[in-house]
Amino acid sequence: MYVDETKVFDLPKLIPEGIKVNTLKFEPYPSRDRNDHWYFSNIRIAEGAPDLRNKLVTEGKFVTHGITFDVNSDKIKPESFGVIREIGYVLKENPDMKIRIIGHTDSDGKAETNLDLSKRRAESVKKILESDFAVSNSRIETDGKGAAEPMMSNTSAEGKANNRRVEFVKM
Q1: Structure confidence by residue, pLDDT tens digits, 114-156
Q2: Could you give the CA distance from residue 147 to residue 169 in angstroms, rounded to a whole number?
Q3: Predicted confidence (pLDDT) per residue in 67-122, tens digit
Q4: Where are the beta strands (DSSP E) in the chain?
Q5: Where are the domains of the chain?
């Protein structure tokens, strides 16, 4: 859970593994005042990720648009943590697995700038895997392709959005 851009706590770590949760209730406790109310706004729910174990372990590659960044920045948006967490779990469950993280951008801007940005974004994902999931530095390589390998044409907003992605490749 994030408040503004600050991580307050990691909700998945609070829920025991194997427990299915479909309701989340916020309640001030203890509260003797029945008029004590809390209001939440601008709530965003991160998109659920596909089965990463199957994609990364058996197919050797996983491509995601679920890791997003601030514009022209390598700062990862909070809603991206769900996908990164799943990758972290896959790496913990497979301690011998090594991966390469590859960042991609759309074609807006200069080619050199996009190449540098894609490399920095891949490095940002690596840093979270190292710090939050204790994945060894030696198990992760990073690279960036800039706009050199588009999935779609960069002539539409949809095409540009699909070209901004992060790939995980098993080595």
Answers
A1: 999 999 999 999 999 999 999 999 999 999 999 999 999 989 9
A2: 18
A3: 999 999 999 999 899 889 889 988 998 999 999 999 999 999 999 999 999 999 99
A4: 2-3, 6-7, 61-64, 99-104, 140-146, 165-170
A5: 46-170
Q: Give me the amino acid identity at 127.
A: K
3-state secondary structure of 19: coil
If pLDDT is split at 50, 70 and 90, which confidence band does 49 have?
very low
DSSP string, 114-141: HHHHHHHHHHHHHHHHHHHH---GGGEE
What are the φ/ψ torsions at residue 32 (nearest 5 degrees)?
-90, -15
Angle at the Cα of 56 from the Cα atoms of 92 and 152, rounded to 5 degrees: 135
Q: Torsion over CA of 9, 13, 14 and 19, rounded to 10 degrees?
A: 150
- State the DSSP code for 72: T
Mention the CATH class of domain 46-170: alpha beta
pTM: 0.70
